[in-house]
Amino acid sequence: MSSGNAHDSELGAFLKARRTELSPAEVGLPDSAGRRRVKGLRREEVALLASISPDYYTRLEQGRRQASEPVLDALARVLRLDDGERAYMFELSGRDAARPRRRTTQKVQPQLQRLLDDLSTTPAVVLGRRTDILAWNAMAAALFTDFARIPQKKRNFVRLVFCEPAIRALYPDWEWVAQLTLAQLRMEAARDPKDPRLAELVGELSLQDPDFRRWWGAHRVATQGSGTKTLHHPVVGPLTLDWSFLTSTDDPEQQLITLTAEPGTPSFDRLRILASWAAQTADHPISDR
After folding, report:
1. Which parts of the chain are beta strand (E)?
2. Boundaries of each HTH cro/C1-type domain copy (predicted)?
């Protein structure tokens, strides 16, 4: 039953990270008097609540055993995992390990490129694997930064959030944004833990940024979807924008991200001002075709 692969190692680290965040009282166990020798729940306590043997659970954390679906369901319940964390745990269990992985260089889908070109007042980008930036429109360049000046191999949204001062300064709540993008990246890492470029990205950012290193070690995960972000643009001022992920049917590993503002709000008017400013200052290609 031993596997010793990358999925099992990551699964063990994830389980450990989650159990250390739960107290006995949160799961209905008595908290013994005095100082506990470990933070959070003990392995034996998780095993008891999941109705499995302590040895079985220990082997899971050590990457020496694979879990069945009923056991994973029980652990999700015991560790109070949300939907995203539960999906992440199942990915790490190796359920999708046989799914083929494409190592070819991604290129933006033509239909997504046409859609980008038609969005004259809506910032939009196309993200690929590892949050690589595959294409963008003039509004996205005006909102975030001139992506064209960034070498293609460095054009990665997570890297820019942590390393690009202009993008970092856009977010008054930068820590929240950074942790969300990192959590989405970790979800992708579960799908292909042996991706060498992903490992290179994580290693680089772990060395460069202590926040990235700490948050990556916390094993937080999040799914892509929709939400609201607040930005402070140096030209048009504060913006409250709704973001959405749209997945390409031809290539599910490409997502179109759009940022829009509710009509009638100051942010809606400021996006129009930004579009006018972008039209006046655009003097470079807006994406690699």
Report:
1. 124-127, 133-136, 226-233, 237-247, 255-260
2. 36-86
Q: 52-61: per-residue pLDDT in tens?
A: 889 999 998 8
Q: Which of 110, 108, 121, 5 has the alpha carbon at shortest distance from 63?
A: 5
In this structure, what CATH number is given to the domain that contains residue 88? 1.10.260.40
Read off the tokens for 212: 């990235």
Task: Answer yes or no: do 149 and 263 share one domain.
Answer: yes
The model's pTM: 0.69
| Number of residues assigned to the chain | 289
With respect to residue 104, please indicate whether it lies within any of the assigned structural domains: no
> CA torsion sign, 198 to 215 to 158 to 149?
negative
The answer to whether residue 243 is domain-embedded is yes
Average pLDDT score over the chain = 85
- Specify if 105 maps to a domain: no
Nearest to 123 by CA among 111, 107, 135: 135
CA distances from 47 to 13, 35, 38, 53, 116 (A): 16, 21, 16, 6, 50
Structure confidence at residue 4 (pLDDT): 46
Strands, sheet with 237-247, edge to edge from the N-terminal-most edge strand: 133-136, 124-127, 255-260, 237-247, 226-233
Query: Do 30 and 120 meet the contact criterion of CB atoms below 8 Å apart?
Result: no
What is the spatial distance between Cα 182 and Cα 81, in angstroms, rounded to a whole number? 18
CB 108 within 8 A of CB 126: yes
Domain span at residue 137? 110-281
- 72 and 164 fall within a common domain: no
CB 286 within 8 A of CB 141: yes
